[in-house]
Design goal:
The complex is a heterodimer. By secondary structure, chain A is mainly α. Helices cover 74% and strands 1% of the residues of chain A. The longest helix of chain B is centred in the middle third of the chain and has 18 residues. The chains are: A mainly alpha, B alpha+beta. Bound molecules: adenosine-5'-diphosphate (ADP) and magnesium ion.
Amino acid sequence: MASSGTKPEKTGQGLFARILGSRAPVIAVPYLWLLLFFLAPFLIVLVISLGDIALAIPPFTFKGGIDLENYALLTQDALYWRSYFSSMQIAGLSTIITLLVGYPIAYGMARAPVQWRAALLMLVILPFWTSFLIRVYAWIGILKKEGLLNLALESIGMIDAPLTILNTNVAVYIGIVYSYLPFMVLPLYASLEKMDRSLLEAASDLGCHPLKAFWLITVPLSLPGIIAGCFLVFIPAVGEFVIPDLLGGSETLMIGKTLWVEFFSNRDWPLSSAVAVILLLVLVIPIVLFQRHQARLAERDG
Amino acid sequence: MASSEKATKGPASAGWAPWEDPAAVPHVRLDGVTKRFGDFTAVDNLTLNIFEGEFFSLLGPSGCGKTTILRMLAGFEAPSEGSILIAGQDVSRVPPHRRPVNMMFQSYALFPHMTVEKNIAFGLEQDGLPKDEVAQRVDDVINLVHLGQFRSRKPHQLSGGQKQRVALARSLVKRPKTLLLDEPLGALDKKLREETQFELVNIQEQVGITFIIVTHDQEEAMTMSHRIAVMDHGRIVQTSTPTDIYEAPGSRYVAEFIGDVNVFEGKVAETTPDMLRIESPEAGCPIEATPTPAQEDASHDPSGSVWVAVRPEKLSISHDKPKDAKANCMTGEVWDIGYLGSHSIFHVKLASGKMVTVAQTNRTRAQARAISWEDTVHMTWRPGDAVVLSA
Ligand SMILES: Nc1ncnc2c1ncn2[C@@H]1O[C@H](COP(=O)(O)OP(=O)(O)O)[C@@H](O)[C@H]1O
Ligand SMILES: [Mg+2]
């Protein structure tokens, strides 16, 4: 009992003793990582966003005072709001489509014979062996006016004139859904695969039609996978730059592109920093709220 | 009509035995049912009639195909051969959600994302019952299985025994005509198990549900059932009432599976209409047994071995050799004694090396000459108390 460390006098050693405790280094590694590669860069960006543009190297200065001028500008120019909003919209819709495409794939994989599953999993990961950029470029070849898709549709007589897909939002949706599909399929597969199939038998034994059982049992039990997959697709999709740049057109407004233009064309580091900070807040706040909600649910369930 | 007959001859009454009535129509009928998984035969050409209101047990060691039989009745597995009739209807094409049976799963299969209450209400909600009736029936069954204080918990917050009771409640609440229970009481502790056994029998008598229960616990099968089917490797070796299974087993397998038994190998020396004489070097004494019709059958082949089965409690043990004993009197040395309060168990070693188990009730407080270790003792039994088996 003495070794359990729960005696009152032992707790008096407090934080210091606990940090030196044997588990501390293991826990410290991810925190150190986050501190070094997330928090520190974020603070740098945050500080730059408070300065002013300058013709210098690096191109910003704090001589004009440390203020929220850049943030005020973001609210005044409709371009930024529309970019944020349109990014959310494109990312949101893409996420829903990815979910609708990914769920049957993950479901099929989880129900496949055990000896097939490793191979199917491999096939889902396989595209990562080719560069992301090359795969997006390949879509240009498929979607352009004289591309493979139009050729195929014309040869089977489904269309008379080639469709305009490239350089529209449709191409952006296709690109995002294609590129992020594995990030949706993998967590969905993980949660569907560990589901006990006797639950569906029990539901059907109790008079529940298999389709209804899918909705009442399978979907709720795969919810953790759905949520993880949606986060993994939505968050990077909001800030996506390559796909809208290569596949999108002039109508495509996404915050990643706006940021790029601000940073490289206008060389306005402070303003683009402000854009990045707001983007981060817009994404992080709902996630934190959601996490707290989940934690409270878990606590209530014990 | 059947209903007026049931009032006087219901399942609870002593003489109720529809399986002996050739005109009675079984409620559940398996006809030549075989189930193969690949080239492994899990259930082998099984024919079985179960009657309405019956409490029927499938008893057998793990892996003998009990769960597979229930799964075929519930509709999760299709028989490879044979047919299954429930209430006169061939159910081979009826999907599980439309079969008039409910099953309690050996693994419980509780829905992890629903509370105890929601789990139990699930089946009633599928039937589209009005909300207040669902609530009422859920309440009733929750009280029945003593789960009141756990009703808003999720399955992962329950102990094994509590989960088992939720699973039981969930299958009971729909009041199906036929209830399939797969090892329903295995995870309960002794007291709760006995209480629940009693409850099950009560429910069964009140509601008139046909229970088909799978167990590997012979005591459980004995106390609850009208009839027991003893299984071995996908086959039924005997279907009888608990008394018959115990007192008149048809084979050594059944005799040894149910309770303790001493089995002596021997050969039939003489057959008269009312007596079988058996020579058994193993027992070390001539054996006389009263043949029942089944045993007469067993003695047809005089060259083959027969086995004499005597239950430990049918043997009397004493220091003194009975004077007139020509047969059924074995002699041996006490090897071990187990004092169990109400009775004692003696392990006696015969000259042949065979170990015999004797159970004797401790009727008086102290015996004048208590049997003790290494004593030479004599064990006798009456001819009608042994069973002669040919397999
Ligand atoms: N789906 C299946 N595929 C292959 N073999 C199975 C399957 N289900 C059961 N079996 C086999 O059938 C036999 C009987 O199983 P089961 O009915 O579960 O036995 P019990 O319930 O009597 O313990 C076992 O040997 C088991 O391995
Ligand atoms: Mg089983």
